[in-house]
Structures are given as structure tokens and as C-alpha cells.
Amino acid sequence: MEQPRTWQHGYELSKGTGLKSGTLYPILIRLSDQGLLDSRWKDAERPGRPPRHVYRLTGSGLALAREQVRVAAESGFGLRPIKAGER
User: Fold this and answer.
1) Phi/psi of residue 31, each to 5°?
2) Quick one: pLDDT band at residue 34, thresholds 50, 70, 90?
3) Domains of the chain (ranges plus CATH)?
4) Residue 60: which residues within 8 A CB-CB, separation 6 or more?
């Protein structure tokens, strides 16, 4: 949420969230399928390396993330899953 328009590699997201790849990548795929994340392939920065997937929040994804933070702050119980527009 801090830099929603910045493309990030899954590895960066894994380090930032503490989620292992087997948990993180299925979540990223679902969020992308739901239109909450943009994803694309980025060519490697060094020759001989494979392209990598990068991700960033869409406008809808950012709105949902902000809503989650608001709900968590109001409840005092931490984050809970909600759907966009649900309160």
C-alpha cells in the first residue's frame, strides 16, 4: 500500500509479508484474477536470467487494502477477510 503503483517481485512481497512462496503465489494469482492486482512479466536485468513476474495493486486493490486497514483499526482484532464494499 505504501507504493501501490510500484511493480514488485514476488520475492520482495514474500520478504515483506513473511509468507512462504507456496502460500503467497496462490494468493497473488487469485488477487490478479479478481482484478485487485496487475501482473506482468518483466525481462531480467542481467543477461541469461529468466523473466520474472511483477505485481502492483490496481485501484480496486488499493481501495480494498485501505478498507482492510480501516476495519482492522476499528475492530482492534487485526485484519479479517472482507469483500470490496463490505463493512
Assistant:
1) -65, -40
2) very high
3) 8-75 (1.10.10.10)
4) 35, 36, 84
